[in-house]
Amino acid sequence: MSSRGRTLIAWALFSTVVSCAAAQESRSPNIMVILCDDLGYGDLSCYGHPIIRTPNLDRLASEGIRFTDFYSAAPVCSPSRVGLMTGRSPNRAGVYDWIPPATPGQNPRPDARHLVHLSRQEVTLPALLKAAGYDTCLSGKWHCNSQFNAQTQPQPDAAGFDHWFATQNNAAPSHQNPQNFVRNGQQVGVLEGFSCQIVVDEVIHWLDDRETTPKSRPFFAYVAFHEPHEPVASPAALTEEYRRQSFSDDQAEYFANVANLDAATGRLLQALDRLQIREQTLVIFSSDNGPETLNRYRSANRSWGVTGQLRGMKLHTHDGGFHVAGIASWPGTIAGNRVEATPVSALDLLPTAVELAGGTLPSGYSSDGVSLVSLLLNGQPPQRSRPLVWAYYNAINDARVAMRHGAWKVLARLNGGQLPRFENLTAERLGMVQQASLSDFEIYDVSRDPGETQDLTGRGLEQEQDLVELLQVEYARLASESPSWPRE
């Protein structure tokens, strides 16, 4: 073979390798999920807050997509996070409400709530990405088990995280100088600074210290801020900036708390820029649920979050409970300055990430979400075979069951509102919710009435019967696939 022929073959092989590498890189972006805690839909300036300044999140939105109809998996923290991790309704994982801390051997609770945790058998987003060749990191709030950092229950590494730096629930004693972080099973002790900045420090150090170069293996980073959940604590100088614009010092501190998490996000973006991986990284920003109600409990005096025009707050099945801010940014791949009204959910993140990673879903696994790849890249809305459904048995409002289906929001009580509120389901309680009848339906066209002010039931709505029957079918399916916790 001639020298020229060998050169052409070598060039062809090289081109093939480069093309495959480029294709692999385009399929396998780095993925970073930033999740806030109790952030209101209207708490960011890009979502209309008149006072709080969030330039870094505004920039993130301007570089990509700002979702107007982004939903969390639940109106309260633990089930919301379990839904994000699994891509399924948290009810299917047996996580029905927030998980209080428990210690091995404590006196059993009659509702078995001290046993609740994310099971090893659950398929999780970090585990799937790890199997697809990703390095994985959790920094921040975990809240997916009751017995944290104990051998009696699975910890974040069991869910697929190579590196984890986390708390069971809130940063304690507050966001300032927390002392309850654990790094890979080891207590860290008192840390100086504010939680969101400490969480970001850990992610940046992890990115810098990865054994492989940032471009050789993709990564998944789950950045779970504690802010702006109580007990709120904010830098004094930042709080002072908001004092003249606030009703009280407590409100100023809340405003500063959101501004501080925005500053922490800015540091993350700067790190991606410094490492020259910003254009290889899909960043998703959202919240676990809606904002806390001011003064709902004794230390909630700084809970000044707002939902904009949405009805309800955290713990409600009206949209204020789980209709949250949502931003997606991937410079060079996702077109910027997009505002997207298609309803999407945190449940969609798992199938989306797995498709982008070129991974596969296990046989028999069925997500309650759908892949958003076509929506992100081409603006083409996904086709949902089933609606988004929530069953929160401890809701503050009377409707315990809710559904979003296209433009429609449907709510219903259980047994005419007579079913007791449940924080967890034992076998007896599971039987009660499975046998309960949906009643007192409410139907809203939230595309025109996002505040859920005009109940359309009984007003001649053509779709009413179909929507009622759809929710009845979907609730029955969800309840039948929900497990119970055995009493010890």
Would you mind describing this structure in some detail?
29% of the residues lie in helices and 16% in strands. It has 11 helices and 15 strands. Strands 1, 2, 3, 4, 5, 6, 7, 8, 9, 10 and 11 form an 11-stranded mixed sheet that branches. Helix 5 (195-209) runs parallel beside helix 7 and helix 6 crosses helix 7 (249-274). The N and C termini lie far apart (77 Å). Mean pLDDT is 93; it is low at 1-26.
Note the topology.
Elements: H1 3-27, E1 30-36, H2 55-63, E2 65-71, H3 77-86, H4 125-131, E3 135-141, E4 163-167, E5 182-183, E6 186-187, H5 195-209, E7 219-224, H6 236-243, H7 249-274, E8 281-287, E9 323-329, E10 338-340, E11 344-345, H8 349-357, H9 373-378, E12 388-391, E13 401-405, E14 408-414, H10 427-435, E15 438-445, H11 464-480
Parallel strand pairs: 1-7, 1-8, 2-10, 2-11, 3-4, 3-7
Antiparallel strand pairs: 2-9, 4-5, 5-6, 8-9, 12-13, 13-14, 14-15
Provide a concise account of the structure shown.
The protein is of the alpha/beta class. It has 11 helices and 15 strands. The strands form 2 sheets. Strands 1, 2, 3, 4, 5, 6, 7, 8, 9, 10 and 11 form an 11-stranded mixed sheet that branches. Strands 12-13-14-15 form a 4-stranded antiparallel sheet, with helices on one face.
**Structural class designation:** alpha/beta
Secondary-structure element order, as H and E?
HEHEHHEEEEHEHHEEEEHHEEEHEH
Which class of the largest domain in CATH terms? Alpha Beta
**How many separate domains?**
2
Mean pLDDT: 93
Second CATH tier, the architecture of the largest domain: 3-Layer(aba) Sandwich
